Amino acid sequence: MKKTLKEIAAMLHADAPSPEFADTVVEGASINTLTIQPGNLFIPFKGERTDGHKYVRQALEKGAGAALWQKDVPDAPEDLPVILVDDSEKALQHLAAAYRRENHFKVVAITGSNGKTTTKDMIAGVLSTKYSVQKTDGNFNNNLGLPLTLLNIKETTDVAVLEMGMSGFGEIELLSNIATPDIAVITNIGESHLQDLGSRENIAKAKFEIISGLNQNGILFYYGDEPLLRSLVEKADGLKSASYGYDETNGLYPRKTEIDEAGSRIQLGTEEAWVSIPVLGRHNVLNGLAAIRTALHLGLTLEEIEEGFGKMEMTAMRMERVEGSGGEVFINDTYNASPTSVMAALQFLEEAKVEGKKIAVLGDMLELGENEEQFHREIGQQMNVNEIPVLLTFGPRSRWLAEEAILRTPLVYWFRDHAELVRELKKHLSKGDLILVKGSRGMELEKVIDAFR
């Protein structure tokens, strides 16, 4: 977004700024004085613990072009380029929606219980072989992050790839109505947010809200092997959709799949050509299919798709290969964890070919609700201890997992302290070992890997 302050006031239906600031140009937006860029529109929020309005002058001193100011906050500065608004959060969302409506870049919106960020990275990487692409930075996927992302999309961009997260009903609907996607993608339905939504059926309904803002000519791509999504699609009158998955009933499926230490290679449906997906784990075949489905819809050839997969930049802590200082290899999958994603990561470890032994370091899975004990115990019951003989667990909930696993293999350990876990792990490591490290974000298990760099 590149606008004068007068234009922004008109988009917000706000009072015009004073004449001396009317032609001030702002570019992009920020809510953080630590990361503010020259020319940004600074948007302060009035919170319970702190008030961002205290930092408006500091933001402008750091190079911000202008700022919003909520009307119920006293002492609005008359000597600074500010626009008065009734509510800063709603103004941010309204401005992002208005900016989206007046621009012609395509929007690909992605949600799902697992794989959102990886799929976002894949789609952005593949499409970049043909288009100018911008994508959600990090996890800016909520009621503040998504509109900020939109406001930082340049007018010259062809495709914006946006991630949409949620913890309850109504949240994805809001984001979808702001972004009005041309393409919506639902990667899967898992167990994350059971604590808030109570059932996988409700999680599916909340994710399906992504179609609420779908462009009139828009399309939904979804994981067709999930019955909950198929049912919702069948009930949605007039929805244009297409599925992908392993089953041959899907519109896009892999006829053949090869998994190796570099990622996977798939042969699509009736196609003879193979496509390489250089991301570890069999589960990432599905994320790759979502990217291929999107790219084909936007006119890319399989050759361009193959090239894009080779150039894509992946977000850290998602099946990230890290070389240890002693010749061991870590798989850093510490960004988040759910039962589905943990079992997928363990499947990768089980199938991997290594010179040494395989070790799993697993932390608590959070936000699973009243069945959290059952989910943790099931991981301990189901993991293949013949292929993965050493297990170190971390966090109060992971003790349930350890209690089940130790019934089948003796090399099981439980910790509440990172340093103690690292000391024990060092005793088991040898050159050529492969160590999977995975847990929910709150477990901060990347600290374990940092100790071996």
TrEMBL record:
Pfam families: Mur_ligase, Mur_ligase_C, Mur_ligase_M
InterPro entries listed in its UniProt record: Mur-like_cat_sf, Mur_ligase_C, Mur_ligase_C_dom_sf, Mur_ligase_cen, Mur_ligase_N, MurCDEF_CellWall_CoF430Synth, MurE/MurF_N, UDP-N-AcMur_synth
Top-level division of the source organism's lineage: Bacteria
Chain positions recorded as ATP binding sites: 112-118
Pathway: Cell wall biogenesis; peptidoglycan biosynthesis
Keywords for the protein's UniProt record, in alphabetical order: ATP-binding, Cell cycle, Cell division, Cell shape, Cell wall biogenesis/degradation, Cytoplasm, Ligase, Nucleotide-binding, Peptidoglycan synthesis
Signal sequence coordinates: none
Transmembrane feature ranges: none
Major place of residence: cytoplasm
Subcellular location: Cytoplasm
Molecular function as annotated in GO: ATP binding; UDP-N-acetylmuramoyl-tripeptide-D-alanyl-D-alanine ligase activity; UDP-N-acetylmuramoylalanyl-D-glutamyl-2,6-diaminopimelate-D-alanyl-D-alanine ligase activity
GO biological process: cell division; cell wall organization; peptidoglycan biosynthetic process; regulation of cell shape
Enzyme category, top tier: ligase
The Mur ligase C-terminal domain, residue ranges: 317-441
UniProt domain Mur ligase central: residue ranges: 110-293
GO CC term, one of those recorded: cytoplasm
SUPFAM superfamilies assigned: MurD-like peptide ligases, catalytic domain, MurD-like peptide ligases, peptide-binding domain, MurE/MurF N-terminal domain
Listed EC numbers: 6.3.2.10
Start and end residues of each Mur ligase N-terminal catalytic domain: 28-100
Catalytic activity annotation: D-alanyl-D-alanine + UDP-N-acetyl-alpha-D-muramoyl-L-alanyl-gamma-D-glutamyl-meso-2,6-diaminopimelate + ATP = UDP-N-acetyl-alpha-D-muramoyl-L-alanyl-gamma-D-glutamyl-meso-2,6-diaminopimeloyl-D-alanyl-D-alanine + ADP + phosphate + H(+)
Gene3D superfamilies according to UniProt: Mur ligase, C-terminal domain, Mur-like, catalytic domain, MurE/MurF, N-terminal domain
Its job: Involved in cell wall formation. Catalyzes the final step in the synthesis of UDP-N-acetylmuramoyl-pentapeptide, the precursor of murein.
Family: Belongs to the MurCDEF family. MurF subfamily.
Protein name: UDP-N-acetylmuramoyl-tripeptide--D-alanyl-D-alanine ligase
Organism: Jeotgalibacillus salarius
Lineage: Bacteria, Bacillati, Bacillota, Bacilli, Bacillales
